[in-house]
């Protein structure tokens, strides 16, 4: 089973969804804004992918944060910010069975198609 986590209007999410659809891979899309995000799921992402990798410091949401929120960022503070503002999570997070992939990598997504054909 494939679950794609993100925000529907994100350009990278659109690319990822298009790639999955072109490969005829069935997937479930989980939009943080409409479907929610709980601390347990975010903690799993952080444990497996690393909270620093998960935190999107290149996006508009990060740039709009107060300097006091960005100063001396640590895992606890980063996870709290990501729960408050899911747009701070690098996108997409793709779950294929028990494996997580962070970000869109077309070759990795094409490999999903190959592995599901076996």
Automatic annotation (TrEMBL):
PROSITE patterns named among the record's database cross-references: ARSC (PS51353)
UniProt cross-references to SUPFAM superfamilies, sorted A to Z: Thioredoxin-like
InterPro entries in UniProt: Arsenate_reductase-like (IPR006660), Thioredoxin-like_sf (IPR036249), Tscrpt_reg_Spx/MgsR (IPR006504)
CDD domains, alphabetized: ArsC_Yffb
Pfam families cross-referenced by the UniProt entry: ArsC
Highest taxon listed in the record's lineage: Bacteria
Database matches in NCBIfam families: arsC_related, PRK10853.1
Family to which this protein belongs: Belongs to the ArsC family.
PANTHER family: ARSENATE REDUCTASE (PTHR30041), PROTEIN YFFB (PTHR30041:SF8)
Official protein name in the record: ArsC family reductase
